[in-house]
Request: fold
Amino acid sequence: MSSTRLQPRKQPRQDRAENTRQRILDAAAHVFADFGYAAGTTNRIAERADISIGSLYQYFPNKDSILVELMTAHTEEGFAVIQRHLAAGLPDSIEDTLRVFVRAAIDNHRDNPRLHRVLFEEAPRPPEFLAMLHRSEDAVVAAAEALLVAHPEVRVAETATAARMVVATIESLVHRLVAGPRPVDLAPFEDELVSMLTRYLTG
Reply:
């Protein structure tokens, strides 16, 4: 798929244009959550946004370009949350530190889980988006490794591998069990995941 087909056509320069663009994205989130990727057409998105299909195409050339915008926003918000926690300072214990990141991942998945499944299971993910996703993951893993190296409670010998395992475990389990079609109760899930990772890192 050509990268030019995924680029927004109009970069809004005024508040009105930005509001229209955001209305399209908000409408698309509802449409994809309600109808899935295949049936989430641009006509339905335009109708939900209460604009003409021609106006929609002034901003986005096709539904895949809208999906890329939604996926990118979701990924960037998750990374921004982690950066804010790192900047604010973390708890002293490794268990409480893990809880901060597990809870952040849960919060990033709990709103509109159906949309999350459409974005990351049904929709195609173009190379440009995957490259951005991998860069974000690498940055999170690097931050996790730095924390593990410096933390006195951590006992694992290979911190680089451990960091990748911790990040992948949190992301995959939260996606499957929080955003999945049969979500678990969040409080016991959070406790069990934090406990499991704490035992792994300190045992």
User: Anything to note?
Assistant: The longest helix spans residues 63-88. The chain has nine helices and no strands. The radius of gyration is 19 Å. The mean pLDDT is 90.
